[in-house]
UniProtKB/TrEMBL annotation:
ATP binds at residues 97-107. Catalyzes the ATP-dependent phosphorylation of L-homoserine to L-homoserine phosphate. Pfam families: GHMP_kinases_C, GHMP_kinases_N. It catalyses: L-homoserine + ATP = O-phospho-L-homoserine + ADP + H(+). The keyword NAD does not apply. Belongs to the GHMP kinase family. Homoserine kinase subfamily. PROSITE patterns: GHMP_KINASES_ATP. It comes from the Bacteria. GO terms for molecular function: ATP binding; homoserine kinase activity. It comes from Saccharobesus litoralis. Residues 218-290 form the GHMP kinase C-terminal domain. Residues 66-156 form the GHMP kinase N-terminal domain. This is Homoserine kinase. The keyword Nucleotide-binding applies.
Length: 317
């Protein structure tokens, strides 16, 4: 039996929720915007093959790949429960660019662990698996955070709780909003994007941040679209990170000229996103970004909706 897990792209922060908000994305044209991991069979030794548009950006040594770390972590988690599992034959289809701000590493991690869990008949519950995903994501970014792995795995708009009992909760959102994303083709490392931020913020900035998140959450539950949209502004990261993104101000200006409700940086960048109420405006923004924000042949732009399903498992018996 072969098991495949597809884990969608995600946008971390969503401008107003630094490290504590994340949103899963699904292109409206049916394109795959996420990584896939397939487990074909057990094996004497771990085996990994690579496919996908961005496979050539990954290390050729299987044991240098994050999905190998996922296998080792999964194996250790089961060993702690007194269960032993054999090695596997795995394929990673890498469809997301590294350092894009679309949750690329999270997508690989989530797909790998979800596939492993399904292949071995679900020995780990969702919360345990999600915490393992966050731990492995932390190996790459330098600290454990869930704003990409949680929406990637669970779908929807996730607010990080990180209590003893629960990692995140699903917030209501507006399914008729369009989320246009554009990856420029450049690469911005999470570490570099964090290093450019201040180590401390003023009292005013922290109050603004808290007020925006509280009002946004209220507006979602109240179904108040204009109020929710007016809160999608980044007071913590964007003022500093936009200097790393060539053409950011021009892209924002065009999106706003087309009636975008909000515009911001997806995760650490360089991907940007625009929120629109109409398909026509979303497509106009997508086409302009494709022609003007993309820097090379690796760049791309999509009109998306919220992916409420999260990671999808298929089995070939």
């Amino acid at each position: 039996m072969a098991v495949t897990a597809y884990a969608p792209a995600s946008t971390g922060n969503v401008s107003l929720g630094f490290d504590i908000l994340g949103l899963a994305l699904k292109p409206t044209n049916g394109a795959l915007l996420g990584d896939r991991v397939t487990i074909f069979a057990t094996a004497d030794e771990f085996e990994l093959s690579l496919a996908g548009r961005f496979a050539n950006k990954l290390p050729s040594d299987a044991k240098q790949n994050i999905v190998y770390d996922c296998f080792v972590g999964f194996q250790a988690e089961l060993a702690a429960q007194g269960k032993a599992i054999p090695a596997v034959n795995m394929q990673l289809e890498k469809n997301l660019p590294i350092g894009s701000g679309l949750g690329s590493s999270a997508s690989s991690i989530v797909a790998a662990l979800a596939a492993l869990n399904a292949f071995f008949e679900y020995p780990l519950d969702k919360e345990t698996l999600l915490r393992l995903m966050g731990k492995l994501e932390g190996q790459i970014s330098g600290s454990i955070h869930y704003d990409n792995v949680a929406p990637c795995y669970l779908g929807g708009l996730q607010l990080m709780v990180e209590s003893e009992d629960k990692v995140s909760i699903t917030l209501p959102c507006f399914d008729d909003w369009y989320w246009t994303i554009c990856y420029s083709g450049a690469s911005v490392s999470t570490a570099a994007a964090r290093d450019i931020l201040p180590k401390e913020y003023s009292t005013k900035t922290t109050i603004d941040f808290g007020r925006q998140l509280a009002v946004f959450t209220h507006a979602l539950y109240a179904g108040d679209k204009p109020l929710a949209a007016s809160m999608i502004k980044d007071v913590l990261a964007e003022p500093y990170r936009k200097s790393l993104l060539a053409g950011f101000d021009d892209a924002r200006a065009y999106a706003e000229s087309q009636g975008a409700l909000a515009f911001g940086i997806s995760g650490s960048g360089p991907t940007v996103f625009a929120v629109s109420e109409s398909a026509e405006a979303a497509e106009n923004i997508r086409a302009w970004l494709q022609d003007n924000y993309c820097q090379n042949e690796f760049g791309f732009s999509h009109v998306c909706k919220i992916d409420n399903d999260g990671t999808a498992i298929t089995e070939d018996k």
